């Protein structure tokens, strides 16, 4: 079944151009120029991904992004904006965006980024074992794309999930920011290394709620990040 993309862009010509490229790539596309309607559509239609322009005329893109993050499970968001400074990009990612594209942009590149986000959020190979860390503190269930911390399911965006899975591949190994970006994105993402910090900051709020416990994701100065939990013995998948 074709993935459904909700396109939220108030510039009609740009909206129709992007819609055309997405449909040619095989996506089902819903589109609107209204932030309020975008929130309604996202709740009713459960799209697989939202392309969100931050400069909307009625409801701010930031408000729409927060509403999208409240949907369970949270829908992946690719933000569009005319703002190009690094701080603007970081702010967008801290709102929960999985990717960030500045105008003007190539519609073909936008389609590739949509495909990359959806691949990251797709199901893992069947039959993979559950991976447990820190005597069961963290459990990663790749077939179901679930992460649990002390028994509670943690809702992660596709990018956060990808970073966590990458770090958990070899616990204790230090992964540089550029390595994490390239592994998670699936394509070169030059100049956006600081975005990893934003995603890790969001992840820590979700999985490290108790400040009295050791950090699960550890920062290595001048190096990057590593998972600070040892891997437990393999656990089989149960139905």
Structure commentary:
- With 239 residues, the chain is α/β, with parallel strands linked by helices.
- 38% of the residues lie in helices and 19% in strands.
- It is elongated.
- The two termini are 24 Å apart.
Q: How is the secondary structure organized here?
A:
Blueprint: E1 4-8, H1 12-24, E2 28-32, H2 35-45, E3 49-53, H3 61-69, E4 77-81, H4 86-94, E5 99-102, H5 107-121, E6 131-133, E7 138-141, E8 146-149, E9 152-154, H6 158-169, H7 177-185, H8 194-207, E10 217-220, E11 224-227
Parallel strand pairs: 1-2, 1-3, 3-4, 4-5
Antiparallel strand pairs: 6-7, 7-8, 8-9, 10-11
Helix pairs in contact: 1-5, 2-3, 4-8, 5-6, 6-7, 7-8
A few lines on this structure:
By secondary structure, this protein is of the alpha/beta class. It is built from eight helices and eleven strands.
Number of helices: 8
What is the architecture of the largest domain at the second tier of CATH? 3-Layer(aba) Sandwich
Counted beta strands = 11
Task: Write down the overall mean pLDDT.
Answer: 81
Which CATH C-level class of the largest domain is it?
Alpha Beta
Order of helices and strands: EHEHEHEHEHEEEEHHHEE
Between the first and last Cα atoms, what is the distance in angstroms? Answer: 24 Å
Whole-number count of domains: 2
Largest sheet: 5 strands, parallel
Gyration radius over CA: 18 Å
Oligomer: single chain
- Derived from helix and strand composition plus strand pairing, the structural class reads alpha/beta
Q: What is CATH's topology name of the largest domain?
A: Rossmann fold
Shape: elongated
Which percent bin holds the helix content?
25-40%
**Parts with pLDDT < 50 across at least 5 consecutive residues:** none
Q: Which percent range describes the beta-strand content?
A: 15-25%
Question: Main sheet: which strands, in order across?
Answer: 2-1-3-4-5
User: What is the fourth-level CATH superfamily of the largest domain?
Assistant: Response regulator
């Amino acid at each position: 079944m074709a993935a459904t993309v909700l396109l939220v862009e108030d510039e009609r010509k740009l909206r129709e151009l992007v819609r055309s490229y997405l449909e040619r790539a095989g996506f089902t596309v819903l589109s609107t120029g209204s932030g309020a309607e975008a929130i309604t559509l996202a709740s009713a239609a459960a799209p697989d991904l939202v392309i969100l322009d931050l400069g909307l005329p009625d409801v701010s893109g930031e408000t729409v992004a927060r509403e999208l993050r409240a949907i369970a499970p949270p829908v992946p968001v690719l933000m569009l904006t005319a703002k190009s400074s690094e701080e603007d990009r970081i702010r967008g990612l801290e709102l929960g965006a999985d990717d960030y594209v500045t105008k003007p942009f190539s519609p073909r590149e936008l389609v590739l980024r949509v495909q990359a986000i959806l691949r990251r959020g797709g199901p893992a190979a069947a039959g993979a074992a559950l991976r447990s860390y820190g005597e069961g503190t963290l459990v990663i269930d790749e077939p179901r794309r679930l992460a649990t911390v002390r028994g509670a399911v943690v809702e992660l965006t596709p990018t956060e999930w990808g970073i966590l899975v990458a770090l958990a591949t070899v616990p204790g190994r230090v992964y540089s920011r550029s390595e994490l970006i390239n592994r998670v994105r699936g394509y070169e993402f030059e100049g956006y290394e600081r975005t990893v910090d934003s995603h890790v900051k969001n992840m820590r709020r979700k999985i490290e709620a108790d400040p009295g416990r050791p950090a699960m994701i550890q920062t290595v100065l001048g190096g990057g990040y590593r998972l600070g939990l040892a891997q437990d013995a393999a656990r089989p998948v149960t139905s």
